[in-house]
Amino acid sequence: MYSYFYGVHFFHSNNSVMVRSHPTISLVKYFGVRDESLRLPTRSSFALSLMNLFTTTTVSFNHGEKTDNILIENYDDEAGIEMIRAFIQKFRELYQIQRYFNVKSKNNFPTASGLASSGSGFAALTIALAELCQLNLSKKELSALARLGSGSAVRSIYGGMVFWHRGENAEGNDCFAETIFPSNHWPELRMIVIVVSEQPKSISTRNAGKMILKSPSYQRWIDAAEERITLLVKAIRDKEIDLVGSIMEQDCIEMHHCLKQVGITYHTEESNQVMDIIRGLRQEKINCYFTSDAGPQIKVLCLEQQVSLIINRIKEDIPQVRCLVSNIAADPIVKKSLIKNTDEPETGSYTAKL
User: Fold this and answer.
1) What is the DSSP secondary-structure string of 179-212?
2) Displacement of CA 159 from its chain's centroid (Å)
3) What are 344-354's pLDDT values in tens digits?
């Protein structure tokens, strides 16, 4: 029996589906939810999908046992694994699936350290499960499903520059993401991820998202999102790096101010050093701006011709940091293969863009 998924016919129960998806780094940020079970955000957000950072997830049916086998490379946090199990169970219930799965996943960047690995991870898992079970879901449906695992996974279903609309209704029907600009809109744009620590963060994004709600400055930060995104979209359309960067940096500073008000500090001494270096470079007329999320890593937005100078300056002062340079990613990639008595795909696989 055949099914149709984004222009390709698939069949056979012994299939393995591999998905490569990318984390999205917010310029106007998502932090905190108004509905815990549906993962509906308190504010809209706008993010860039990073080409050179990615999650690779392979899913197949577990024919032998009524259990899900989950292996995440370099990650053994039991609470995180249980979140994945709960998501897969919710998937079974929503679509009346009577199958169990083998899941293997890995990132080429640090996991659970402020680089949106949960977003790319749950996006890849969502696409792979839906494809393996031949559900023929639209991007919007995939996005809504992925949100149940991780809020930022909504954006990682898409490539390019992505706007996640917070929505207003309680059911979340108007909460969705969309690509505003494709990956090739601004070819010179780069984001440098400065990895100052490879260790998982001490406070998870989900827990911090609950705590930040008590910040006295939080509502004001929420209220600023829509206007900032409107200004940001125009600035990106016009390729105004200084305006884009200043909006991004201000939103980041205000978010971390809210976190500090509830006793959360993600930045380390090295994080602060990197931000000071970026401020100093701007005094030298170098167009570069910083942002950071729920972790110590600093991301620097700049243009391609400035990358080497920025990295060299950072490495001069903080030689131990790792610098990952990325342009903007396109959509996730799906590859499907036939397997025989092994978890590894055989030859004959192909790639399709969502």
Assistant:
1) EEE-TTSSTTEEEEEEE---SPPSS-HHHHHHHG
2) 11
3) 433 333 333 34
Query: Do residues 158 and 140 make contact, with C-beta atoms less than 8 angstroms apart?
Result: no
Return the amino acid letter for 49. Answer: S
Which CATH number characterizes residue 28's domain? 3.30.230.10
The domain in which residue 225 lies consists of: 3-353
Spatial separation of the C-alpha atoms in residues 26 and 31, rounded to whole Å: 10
Tokens of 299: 């991301």
Sign of the dihedral through C-alpha 88, 94, 100, 103 = negative
How many helices (H) and strands (E) are present in the chain, helices listed first?
10, 18
The residues, any chain, with a CB within 8 Å of residue 288's CB and separated by 6 or more, are 245, 278, 281, 282, 300, 301, 302, 306, 310
How far lies 119's CA from each of 2, 17, 53, 256, 280, in Å? Answer: 30, 19, 12, 20, 32
CA 82 to chain centroid, in Å, comes to 19
pLDDT surpassing 90 at residue 177: yes
Specify the range with the lowest mean pLDDT, choosing from 11-25, 32-46, 210-224.
Answer: 11-25
Helix intervals (H) in the chain: 78-95, 117-132, 139-147, 153-156, 205-211, 218-223, 225-237, 241-261, 269-283, 307-317
Lowest mean pLDDT of 144-153, 251-260, 301-310, 332-341, name the range.
332-341
* Direct distance between the N- and C-terminal alpha carbons of the chain, in angstroms, rounded to an integer: 22
∠90-51-172 over CA atoms, to 5°? 35
The pair of structure tokens assigned to 218 is: 């939080």
Q: Which residue has the tokens 């591999």?
A: 18
Element (DSSP H or E) covering residue 47: strand 45-49
**Token pair of 63 as six digits:** 């024919």
Using pLDDT thresholds of 50, 70 and 90, give the confidence band for residue 340. low
Give the residues across from 164 on adjacent strands. 45, 177
Structure tokens that stand for 18 in this block: 């591999």
Residue type, 291: T
Number of domains in the chain: 1
